[in-house]
Amino acid sequence: MTMRTAVLADSIVTAKGSSPVSFTCAIFQQAGVPAEHIAQFNAMLAAEHQ
Q1: With a threshold of 0.70, does the pTM exceed it?
Q2: What pLDDT, in 10s, does the model give residues 21-39?
Q3: How far apart are CA 49 and CA 8, in angstroms?
Q4: Rounded CA gap, 18 and 31, in Å?
Q5: Residue-range domain boundaries for the chain
Q6: Which residues are bridge partners to 13 per DSSP?
Q7: What is the mean pLDDT of the chain?
Q8: How many angstroms separate the most distant Cα atoms in the chain?
Q9: For the CA atoms of 37, 8, 6, 49, what is the dihedral angle to 10 degrees?
Q10: Is 40 exposed, middle or buried (0-12, 13-18, 19+ CB in 10 A)?
């Protein structure tokens, strides 16, 4: 199950304070950063917690 920690709707991005990476990924998505690059960014930061 995937939990949504950031929400992107109508050009508004919001997330709880404990989700800075998800928030940043949503901002990147809104800015048009390719999904491949966003996934790589997310994976790099998530690797620290494995």
Answers
A1: yes
A2: 999 999 999 999 999 999 9
A3: 25
A4: 22
A5: 20-50
A6: 8
A7: 88
A8: 33
A9: 0
A10: exposed
